[in-house]
Amino acid sequence: MKPDLAVAPLNSWIQTNGKPLIIAGPCSAETEEQLCETARQLAALGSVHAIRAGIWKPRTRPGSFEGMGEAALPWIQRAKAETGLPFAVEVATPQHIELALKYGVDILWVGARTTVNPFNVQEIADALKGVDVPVLIKNPVNPDLALWVGAFERIAGAGITKLGAIHRGFSTGEASKYRNIPMWQMAIELRTMFPQLPIIGDPSHMAGKRAYLNELAQMAMDLNYDGLIVESHIDPDKAWSDAAQQLTPAAFGEMLDHLQIRQLESPDREFQGAMEQIRVKIDSVDRQLVEMLAARMSLVEKMAEYKRDNNVSMFQPDRWKEILETRKQLGLKLNLYPELVEEIYKIIHMESIRKQTEVMNSAPVV
Ligand SMILES: O=C(O)C(=O)C[C@]1(C(=O)O)C=C[C@@H](O)C=C1
């Protein structure tokens, strides 16, 4: 099935004057004062387009603060009236949707722990039938692109076109300085699949710590994301949830001021000419790369025929070790990142074994 989504452009539902969409606000709405004051300070920055606040919080273990629920919805109405900014809230059940819409929440988002469950996403989609509201879908907790795409297809199937993706990083079990590993490649694949789908970076949930917010937000901008969603709290250290990753509205404003926003293209003719020349050279080098790969594979195929006829196994640990070491050393001398060479060779080696298995399990040509 060829994936396709009917997506309304971002500027059909929120005005950002060509700038990245900025959504900011507390992880959780805790008290009326905390929410309204945070919203006021964020609105005063002049660069925030919408406020976020969690009121239903899916927590890993019971006993943690699970959000203020419906009680916080009138606070949102007040904060909206005071700031004139639209509000975004996470919804995980049909009741959440009903309540959020009843109190005038403008943007809904589906959380990472909901996106993982197709039954749950379908229930949300069914509750959204006939409703015209923007829906942002966070990536699933685990790095499964199909699950993320499936959630878009389900919500789009309900007739929602004001769609956007929130990239909040992935929980893989791998050690990392980040709370959730970005795996930027996943968002690049999503963008390649659905070029029209806005992607919003969530550096807060990737980082887990204030100190990493800048670098992650900058990376999202460098990859042409359409916006950012960032957790901000008037008194972050006293926040009832996600204290380590929230920052004050003032610190957030400073972070935004320092972000480099790059454009996808430049109208400068000289620049365009220089790019074109280098791209022609890259095309030629890439052609050679692919031809080299094909040449290597045909040598491997020849070798596999000898191995088959002499009953020798495809995996040769000592030779593999030597290949990996010598190629890494060569890469290092040529200024290549050693892990790049290692990763590429791991893929080549696996493909070599796959090819040899194919040949060795085929009958010899007589
Ligand atoms: O040298 C071999 O025996 C091979 O099978 C080739 C090759 C390779 O692709 O370079 C593949 C598998 C082995 O583990 C080591 C090396």
From TrEMBL:
Molecular-function GO term, any one: transferase activity
- What's one Pfam family here? DAHP_synth_1
GO process annotations (BP): chorismate metabolic process
SUPFAM superfamilies reported in the protein's UniProt record:
Aldolase (SSF51569), Chorismate mutase II (SSF48600)
Please state every residue range assigned to the domain named Chorismate mutase. 269-360
This protein's UniProt keywords: Transferase
Q: What is its EC number?
A: 5.4.99.5
Q: Which domain of life is it from?
A: Bacteria
Q: Which InterPro entries match?
A: Aldolase_TIM, Chorismate_II_sf, Class-I_DAHP_synthase, CM_dom_sf, CM_II_prokaryot, DAHP1/KDSA
Q: What name does this protein carry?
A: chorismate mutase
Its source organism is Fibrella rubiginis
